[in-house]
Amino acid sequence: MWLRRVNHSASRLPAWLKLAAGLIVSWAVMVFTHEVGHLIGGGISGATLVHYDLAPWRLPYSLHQPDPAPLLTLWGGPVFGIAGVGLIAMVVRHPSTRFIADFCLLANGTYLAVAWFTGERTLDTARLLNAGASPLSILLFCAATIPLGYVRFRQDCIDLFVVPNSEETMTSDHHLNQ
């Protein structure tokens, strides 16, 4: 009986609090996996890692010098930031992991798009362009990830956090009973 109360009390948390917690966790996962992707890309390309910081409460970064294949190092962040988390979500198959994976899909594409518009030279988009990436490749990445990420993440939010009002529930239950 006591165990049931604990489980039920957790489900009675306000939806906004669950959403806020989900966003905080998703942000931490996104920035961590994105930066790990840069580390993996740099490692594969033979780049020398000079310094890195993976703390999610400030913007993580990694510096490689020299970097014989900067495109591989740079693309490693957004690609692994999506693929790594997406693979985990496919294996675990739980709504919360899908929520995190879809957040990462949307956030990685949005990050490259926003960085493009800001023109900030230390962000990935400017660095990709300086390393020789085609603007079309960045545009295609953003065009694929942002709409798909938005649609999937929006549905995750609805599935996980929207509580039907009692009228809708009664109407649904009434239709099911007929």
Structure in words:
- By secondary structure, this protein is mostly helical.
- Helix content is 75%, strand content 5%.
- It has seven helices and two strands.
- It has helices at 2-11, 15-45, 70-92, 95-118, 124-130, 135-161, 166-177, and strands spanning 49-53, 61-64.
- Strands 1-2 form a two-stranded antiparallel ribbon.
- A hairpin with a 7-residue loop joins strand 1 and strand 2 (61-64).
- The chain is elongated, with a radius of gyration of 20 Å.
- The two termini are 33 Å apart.
- 30% of the residues are buried.
- Residues 1-9 and 169-176 have low confidence and may be disordered.
Précis, in short:
The protein is mainly alpha-helical and 178 residues long. 75% of the residues lie in helices and 5% in strands. Residues 1-9 and 169-176 have low confidence and may be disordered.
Key features of this structure:
single chain, 178 residues, mainly alpha, two-stranded antiparallel ribbon, elongated
What is the number of beta strands? 2
The low-confidence runs, each spanning 5 or more residues with pLDDT under 50, are 1-9, 169-176
- Helix-residue proportion: over 70%
Secondary-structure element series? HHEEHHHHH
Quote the average pLDDT. Answer: 89
What is the element layout, followed by pairings?
Layout: H1 2-11, H2 15-45, E1 49-53, E2 61-64, H3 70-92, H4 95-118, H5 124-130, H6 135-161, H7 166-177
Antiparallel strand pairs: 1-2
Helix pairs in contact: 2-3, 2-4, 3-4, 4-6
